[in-house]
Amino acid sequence: MSGAFGAISRPTRRECPCGGYPSAGATYGDCCGRLHEGVAAASAEALMRSRYAAFALGDVAYLLRSWHARTRPASLTLDADDTWTGLEVLDTTAGGPADDEGTVTYRACRQDASGATHTMRETARFIRRAGRWVYLDGDVG
User: pTM for the full model?
Assistant: First the structure.
């Protein structure tokens, strides 16, 4: 599979970039890798973590596929010089197996080509459509 970074390397035996969900330290293959290959996310948090992992791996196709059609951009370009360095889930509201909507507030850190560290905080909104969670939009602050 190709993305903004060329062929996407899928590190199945390495710790997942999201930190592991639902248990810390889970491998990419047992965590977000399954979702990147087409398994539906069980929760809004699982989808958000898989999207973070997709940013970390440069998987633009997955990011677009997991974005609601109403709010999804026509294209997405990632900066290949960014290194995503950490994810912290701060809060979740709903977004579970019995819900159709949910929010996840998180903090994500990245390092740019100059070595500067940047932190982004977002409260992301997710909805379930046709049995699958999708990213709708978010408030970045």
Answer: 0.90
